[in-house]
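Sample A.
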Amino acid sequence: AQAATVKLEGFGCGGIVDGSGFIIAKNYVVTNAHVVAGVKHPKIVDSEGTHNASLVWIDIKQDLAVLRTDPLVAQPLTFADEPIQNGADVLIIGFPRGGEQVSSPGIVLEKVRALGKDIYLQDPVIRNVLSLQATVIQGNSGGPVVAENGEVVGVVFATSTAYNTIGYAVDSSSIKDSVLSAT
């Protein structure tokens, strides 16, 4: 899963933007919509170097995006077929603060239907969210939450504003069909 987790970089929204993503098909990467919104020329960085990418699908309500790039060498990750259970051990993989890749252990605290806003803070949205006991730092956004079997169970999108050891991910069981249809 670490080899299939990539860094995203670009210039937009008033400055340098960085985040994480993961390979879902040979030349497609999943990330958060808020990572690439406003970025005209996103770049994907993997073990082979930097690749130009283009946005092919975005969902501002679920905070997801799919980018297309040249074929990438790492094996794509797969979404879990079964929903993750509360109390399950997971791994959060990403590039906090745009630095080196970090893999952090976590636990699924609960699955909730959360009321929030879209990425532009305009319209109300209900998301199926995993609440995680894990350290999520800016730059982790868009990275995978991986179960012990290596399957993706969530996509990191936020950290708690009240507790520094709580993070949030969009539950992959609620979004995998939409994401896969974009590839």
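Sample B.
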Amino acid sequence: MRRFHDVRGRIAGLASSADVKTLMACVRGAMKVAVWDLETGAFRRWHPYADEPVSSLAFSPDGKWLAVGSEVGMVLPYYYPELNYDGEYHPGAPVSGVAFGWTEGRSDCRLAMAGDCITVALMSGGEIDKPPSGDATSAAAVAFSANGRWLAAVNGNTFAVHLWDAWADRHERTGELDSEPRSVCFSADGQVLAVAAASRVWLTDVPSLRTWGACAHGGRVAQVAGHPTRNLVASAGADGTVRFWSADAAAGERVYDWEMGGVTAVAFAPDGLTCAVGGVKGQV
């Protein structure tokens, strides 16, 4: 375990680059993101964003892009590794989450942005494409399956889970939970969707959205992240623990507690060898 340089404030999101050389974090209310060397743990610098608080960030699977969303309603796509940007997206509402996914054939990447509405941009096009079809007026979080076919979103107001076939531009199904969902991710094989709601991680089949498992975390779950190569889901909880769950059996595999207070963010590196977590006190 390596403890990175502390930052001031609550860690809202973490992301590892595709080349597994860079770890970035956004801090709630801050107008910049923290950059670390993932191999050594050395803090590199603060990267300025804009005159808006950062809410979320994600790296593209092709390694070319970093997307940073804001609480005011703008997403900046940065070229990686230079971290300079060309253009910006304006979804028209505060952005609560961003996610990248492959197009069919892996010729390009899509960027999904969650907020009062869900919008999708094709990276080669440089502008927002039409929103996904179906009834999903707002979303707290979005996620793509590893192959990019499935796009999922959760709505904290209606307790709904939405699923699209992104390749066919078709709304597949809507499911409902009995508590407010906050985060969503896919298993490595794309067959299971994990949703963080209250103190549980709910597991549903893709594409039926039939809920078949509920993993009790023990404290309110802030985020979930899917392992890139194993059917494993990590959950970050207010009880200060990070828990690993089998996405095949809905069974706990491991628990980590670093006594860092509430854990607010979790992310796997694309090679699956590193899991990064962040907390309310700015520790990573």
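B remarks: The chain is about 0% helix and 50% strand. The two ends are 11 Å apart (CA to CA).
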